[in-house]
Prior knowledge:
With about 300 residues, the chain is of the alpha+beta class.
Amino acid sequence: MNFSVPFFCIIGIFFIPLQRSIKDMTMTKKTSIQIFEEKKVRSVWNEEEEKWYFCIADVVEILTESKNPSDYIKKMKSRDPQLAEGWGQIVTPLSLQTAGGKQRVNCASLEGVFRIIQSIPSPKAEPFKQWMAQVASNRVDQMQDPELSIEQAVMDYKRLGYSDNWINQRIKSIEVRKSLTDEWKRCGVEEGIQFATLTDIITKTWSGKTTKEYKQYKGLKKENLRDNMTNTELILNMLAETATTDLSKEHNPETFGENIDVAQKGGNVALSARLELEKQLGHSIVTPLNAKKYLNQIDKTGKDDDEGK
């Protein structure tokens, strides 16, 4: 699927650690990104990679105001031999709408866009470069003092309109998740595919959906699933992960197959709680409600009517 999005949304995705595309998210760093407002850049969502790809010519035109971005790109590559040498790894030709109909156009992921911007001497690119340097500096500080990451997350959630109750649950869920992944590492589970597989098993067991299916159900793309769960969904997910952690410590699984069995048992604990609650409520607690819909609801009513946030 492809369409145009405001260029400031590209910045917003990276500036806010929560990676979401909802109302006012790009206002977090208003002063350093206002030069990009209302500018459009063609984009393509890669379903498999769960990545956005952006038209390089659009990005260059926006930042440089060049009348001929293709010519600017050629000159830029001649000025930067390293960029030219790695161009094949940065660029991905994708089908986009042009004045002459759909054509294959050079695009780049967010990481690629960042690399290209480093080679743009235009004054308009400077605020963006300074912003990147600040983000990198903040990240180093947060790695040295993890408490800063939590404080930043709380501020970001508050700024976006989440309730204190939801924020407390979300921060707790981060702690629960960390305990689970630490336990998986202790049991020899490998990060990456094995972590993702066990996570899918836990999620599928209690909710009936894999992580990808759950995100699609809520209309999400790159956004974090947990950032778009209701309070009840978060609590059940935490229960599933906490149960898995405790069961793993009790049974000490030695093979990946044994870890799969523990993950299913942990998910079943939360499934039992979910089914009992739904029996009392008379409806499913697995909901398509996402953060964007929720915050729009708050804007219209001025009240937090949702069960979760």
